[in-house]
Amino acid sequence: MGRFVVANGRRGLAAFVVGSLLVLSSASGCAKIESFDLIREGNSLYKDAKFVEAIDKYNAAEAVWDDHLKLYWNRACAAESQVMRMKDPEQREARRGYADMALKDFQTWYERLPPEEKTTEAEELVLEHRLNILHADERCDDLLTYWFEKQRTDPNNENIYGAVIRQYEQCGNDAKVEEWYVKRTEDFPQSVKAWHALAIRRFDPLWPEAESGLPYNESLPPAERIKVADEVLGLLDKALAIDPKFRDAYVWRSMAYTQKSQARIVVDEPEFPEEKLEAILAREDLMLAWKQQKAVCDLDQIPDCPTDLEELKKLEAPCCPPPPLSPTEQAEDAARKLELEAEIANPPEEEPEDTKKKGKRKR
To answer: Whole-angstrom Cα distance, residue 53 to residue 301?
Structure first.
């Protein structure tokens, strides 16, 4: 009897445990179904661009059953989308909350992936979303910290320098932008792109105001424009010393020489040697600008334009324009330049005032 009671007692306990598991399983299954329904409702709202309402549904789904990967991915995407649309400065605090939510959910999604699904592609996807969110939420420090860490672990990757520069530009820190342009040439002295990028950066002051209708920046004094153009040319020379066939360097050199020519103060009737020399230098700059264009034509295998006007009109493909000066004109300018430079370097001695007065006395 006793054994029977014990046996029945064990059977009763087993039945109770099984029954409890069935109840728990049933409850868990119901929770999953309810969670899935809420997620589907959230997805529908997301498709209608109702991101805040979608997030509310995802939050409700999490409260019911939180072991669902798509829940975190979908809520992260909804929060990210909400961040992207909140551009008003007064929304900054609220936007920060959605940004934090998106960052956390993307990370949770990745951490809960099965080991075999934690691929490089999945990691890069999360990183891409993370950078987009940090950028949209204007978190300059966080973004810069990310790029500095990348630069520390991969110091030979020149592309990271470009990313740091762009990040400082977006953060509005022009001094740091300048610093990293220079740092790029120092750390990668054999990089054509580094010297070329710095040259383009230095060219910035020469750009004209759009409203002026002029081909140069009239707010910059002529002497300063020439100085800037010379600096640009020097940087481009370094790029071409590394790669003489670097096409873009010739394009920007042509632009720099054109700016120099336009900065020359040329008078209609020059009287002094300096004025006469200025006109020659303007023509010389134009000739040098053309030589850069000619280099581009040669690299692109563009033929010279025909001298006959009728033949030129028939052309359908681009051609390389003729030089602004003939060989004879160039030779004449070169000779006259030497004369004027010598005259400026050794000006004639002025006649003393006393001698001038004596010469004017009547006899």
So the answer is: 60
